[in-house]
Amino acid sequence: QRISEFLQAFVHMPRRLILGSAPPAALPDSTGLQCLYQHLLPANQPCGLTITGFPPRLEQVSPTSPLFQKAYPGQFIHALVLPDGRPPLNAQSPGFTGQKCQATLDQETLHLDGRWLWLKDLNQVGVNAAVKTRHTPKARKEEAAFDMDGCCTVL
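Structure (tokenized):
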């Protein structure tokens, strides 16, 4: 069902589904495809994320966050999929900013169970290198792509 929701929400975008026991070594840059990291956010628990900018990206992940060591500063918000029937919050949404994502997660939908946060690493030609750098050690970066506990899925 989650895969179906994702495909319907992003029908206008090229995509490739990759399933496996380990993250892919790389995706072809020429296609513009990237790994997406899907995280289920618990209800009634602050997400512990600081989200800023346009496009929205993670500025900080609190040690008390349910996404600590699963999401990292520098990752971009690809989408926020909500279970209450409203359209996903993504690049096609009006006002898709860090402030809007932060307010949606921390205030408007905190009580909802079944919120999915889709993150991506920026991997595009022509983007400032300072923006696309993840501020984590290499070992953490590799581990972030695949969570053995099943909380995060590489898509």
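The radius of gyration is 15 Å. The helical segments are 2-9, 98-108, 129-132, 138-144.
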